[in-house]
Amino acid sequence: MANTTASSEMEKSAKIFVAGHRGLVGSAIVRKLQDQGFTNLVLKTHSELDLTSQSDVESFFATEKPVYVILAAAKVGGIHANNTYPADFIGVNLQIQTNVIHSAYTHGVKKLLFLGSSCIYPKFAPQPIPESALLTGPLEPTNEWYAIAKIAGIKMCQAYRIQHQWDAISGMPTNLYGPNDNFHPENSHVLPALMRRFHEAKANDAEEVVVWGSGSPLREFLHVDDLADACVFLMERYSGFEHVNVGSGVEVTIKELAELVKEVVGFKGKLVWDCTKPDGTPRKLMDNSKLASLGWTPKITLKDGLSQTYQWYLENVV
What we know:
Belongs to the NAD(P)-dependent epimerase/dehydratase family. Fucose synthase subfamily. The protein has 10 helices and 11 strands.
């Protein structure tokens, strides 16, 4: 197997396929690669390439023959979406990652990075959550469909490394936010949902904003530009068997987050908590010591990241 900390810089002219380049994560990775001088990115919209179609993915790899692959394509959503569309969350994600990983291997891709999520860990994992906590207990029921698919992706990368000595690695980001996030009123994650709610309340001169849950769960947030930086770092600096956590190492309560978003947006009304609604996992903080020991740390503070994201929201969503 490849050396865990093998340092191998990607050639600036090498063909890199970023799957999911229009999403929150993929678009940030494209920005980062372009900023760092990579000139040969292969980008396909869903209408140009359906990643759930095995034959379409196979012919794409046969034709394009990328050297590197970053797999950021996935069907994602918050608690409400996971509860409503469980078949989509497990089925679509399994199809995408199985097709891309297998075709990447069979067509001679040099290295692949598979991206998952912190929801792969057990609901009551030790905090901060180390990589070794994977598969040590039951998952959070509200997103187990998505989590099972992502765990399968990690294991597929490991299996291809064992059987084929192929350099497939996995990164597990914490909760992400930033430009190109999904601000849909029902199918979005907590941070963009809060931003939209406060913005609309401010625009409508509302007296209060009602937020799901108690506000007590602890969460960690990473700006997607930091994740993109970590992805390029891992592609060039890591070739290990185990997946790698990518987080900020800073946790806030949902209540603190809501107050911060409220401040950034400039909403002057009241915050009301609807305790009849589910909270999800009580605490979720990644142990980022493995990535830190390799030499990577995040650079964007939550306050700066929120201000930047709200500016993007005003310019692109409103």
